[in-house]
Design goal:
The complex is a heterodimer of chains A (about 450) and B (about 170). By secondary structure, chain A is mainly α. Helices cover about 70% and strands about 0% of the residues of chain A. Classes of the chains: A mainly alpha (about 450), B mainly alpha (about 170).
């Protein structure tokens, strides 16, 4: 059936046609591409992507307009279906109103639509209401209902987990441990473990953890934390080692930390720390890789090796990291990027190159998105360096307006205690005072002096 | 580049003074290097203060000044909570440079400064904003941030200070 016919049917009040046409527009409105995990880009490839983005930006704006138009259309037909009483459509309308997709944001109205969806029997709406409401009984009721009605998947697991927690803690219902256990039995291994850890945290009842302590590495780590809270690092280390024996990379990395720091009752030992970090790094764990490389870079516990350090940092910096399956975005590690840029600046383990330095700092500071869904973490130190480069014309063409812009950015990101915050203020004040590259403005200089 | 820097340094910009000093260092003009570094440190430039303190501590005998170096490090810790400077102070305490050997007050001050900051690297406690994101399936706390690495350093320095205090 073609689109025109569908629209005709929808206009005449056919709810199914409305839904179909809404879904059609919805699909067309998302330009999202699949992220690839574990890809390694070379620095050159990355720069190529950056340059390519600049040149095709005109075409992109057009397609973005089209996307907007499709989103509006999708909303229009979902709204029609919702008003005709389709529960699923009510949920869609609620979601779009909440996020402002194809329509202006309106949280109050969004809640109402979700409620209509839930009353109409849509489990997705029930789940959302359960998360948003403050009323414990309503929360419990909707979690339980959605846990029963949802199709198998992460959302269903989530609802079951919450239901189990509510039973175990007696929230919105009577406390019933046997019922809680029944609900936990429906969960997959990961969620069950997570539910039990949360319950034990909330209720403070120890028996929950003991049941799974012998099999689950997360629980072993949890047990270790309990001992750390009592300042008993020696026992905690034993639990971590148990978890590490079951290939828990986090435990390996934390054992490394303990040796590196030399916590109470544990002899400080850099070589041992390095050993544990590298063991975790072999399992592709970026946290440990960075710590290990820092030791190589500084020459602590092992012989200093700048070439290897630079190679490692660059590799981590350009490797996409997996942040799980819950919709968290992929991103590149900004700490590794920062150190790669710093080493490039000093020519450590690589050739000195001021153009590449600025480019690396720009990326490390979070000023450039590598891809659309790269969630950015700003590093003010790196942004300050970029501002400096523009100020001095070092590696880029001198540009005072840009320098000022980045100095202001550094200022806004840092708090009073951090070094580059003050430097940025001084620089801005000084630029206004002397009129260096920008129009002289004594009153603005005075304003900045007060900061 | 050097002329630009000289112009701005003479106009009073601390950061340019430091950069100028670094150029003189490469040129092996140590008098000018020292002079500009000192001036820059007086403007409270972070990098310059750190480097000047280091030069005063480990430089040639005629410029060595432990007291001045110590006061710079103290200022760095006071204003910026800089971990490297904390460690340097502990080093100097251990060797009795510019301060009484194993000076209890100073070591306790470092310990207090560290304890005032957020150093929990082991606890997950629902969400630990310092460093971690809980991830299903991968069972990993994945992200390594600057703040996390700094907290590790602080814990290490604190452990070291506690050990020195216990031994004396």
């Amino acid at each position: 059936m073609d689109v025109k016919n569908l629209i005709q049917l929808a206009e005449n009040g056919d709810v199914n046609a409305m839904m179909e046409i809404a879904k059609f527009y919805d699909e067309k409105s998302s330009g999202r591409q699949e992220d690839k995990v574990g890809d390694v880009l070379s620095e050159e490839e990355f720069l190529e992507i950056l340059l390519a983005e600049e040149t095709i930006s005109d075409e992109e704006t057009i397609s973005k307009d089209e996307c907007e138009e499709n989103k509006k259309n999708a909303y229009k037909y979902y709204r029609m279906a919702a008003e005709a009483g389709n529960a699923e459509a009510c949920t869609e309308v609620g979601r779009r109103l909440y996020d402002g997709i194809g329509v202006e944001k309106n949280e109050e109205e969004s809640d109402e639509w979700y409620k209509r969806g839930a009353e109409g029997g849509d489990p997705n709406a029930m789940r959302v209401i359960a998360f948003r409401t403050d009323n414990a009984e309503e929360k419990f009721k909707y979690f339980k209902l959605s846990a029963e009605l949802l199709k198998p998947g992460l959302n269903k697991q989530d609802s079951i987990k919450e239901t189990a927690i509510n039973y175990a803690c007696g929230r919105g219902t009577e406390k019933d441990i046997s019922k809680a256990k029944k609900w936990i039995a429906k969960l997959d291994e990961d969620h069950a473990e997570y539910a039990i850890i949360q319950i034990s945290k909330m209720t403070g009842e120890d028996f929950w953890l003991k049941e799974i302590a012998e099999t689950s590495t997360n629980t072993m780590i949890e047990m270790a934390e309990k001992f750390i809270q009592k300042n008993d690092f020696v026992t905690a280390l034993k639990w971590y080692k148990k978890a590490a024996a079951k290939d828990s990379v986090e435990a390996m990395s934390l054992i490394g930390d303990m040796y590196y720091i030399g916590e109470e009752g544990i002899e400080q030992n850099y070589a041992e720390a390095f050993k544990w970090y590298s063991q975790a790094a072999q399992h592709d764990y970026n946290m440990a890789k960075i710590k290990m490389t820092l030791m190589i870079y500084r020459g602590i516990g092992v012989e200093q090796d700048l070439n290897t350090a630079f190679k490692n940092f660059s590799k981590i910096a350009w490797t996409r990291e997996n942040f799980g399956e819950l919709g968290a975005p992929l991103r590149f590690n900004s700490v590794a990027r920062y150190y790669a840029a710093k080493m490039r600046e000093n020519g450590e383990g690589c050739t000195k190159d001021s153009t590449k330095t600025v480019e690396s700092y720009r990326v490390a500071g979070g000023l450039e998105k590598i891809e659309e869904y790269d969630s950015v973490r700003f590093i003010p130190k790196a942004i300050y360096k970029v501002a400096d480069a523009y100020f001095l014309g070092d590696g880029v063409r001198q540009n005072f307006a840009k320098a000022l812009n980045f100095y202001e950015k550094t200022f806004s990101l840092e708090s009073g205690k951090t070094p580059y915050h003050k430097e940025a203020v001084k620089k801005i004040m000084w630029m206004y005072e002397l009129g260096e590259g920008i129009p002289q403005d004594k009153s603005k200089a005075e304003e900045w002096r007060k900061k | 580049m050097k002329e630009k820097l000289l112009k701005w340094a003479e106009a009073g910009d601390g950061d340019c003074m430091y950069k100028l000093a670094k150029i003189y260092q490469v040129e092996e003009n140590f008098d000018k290097y020292f002079e500009w570094l000192r001036k820059s440190a007086e403007t409270k430039n972070f990098d310059a203060m750190k480097e000047f303190a280091e030069v005063l501590r480990n430089g040639e005998e005629k410029i060595r000044d432990y007291e001045k170096s110590m006061s710079l490090y103290k200022e760095l810790v006071e204003t910026f909570r800089d971990e490297e400077s904390m460690e340097k102070i502990v080093d100097m305490c251990e060797q009795g440079q510019g301060v009484e050997k194993n000076d209890k007050d100073l070591l306790n001050y470092i310990l207090e400064t560290i304890n005032d900051m957020y150093n929990d690297i082991y606890y997950i406690k629902n969400i630990n904003f310092l460093a971690r994101t809980f991830v299903f399936k991968t069972r990993r706390h994945n992200e390594c941030t600057m703040e996390y690495l700094q907290a590790v350093e602080r814990r290490r320095i604190a452990a070291r200070v506690r050990k020195i205090l216990a031994e004396n």
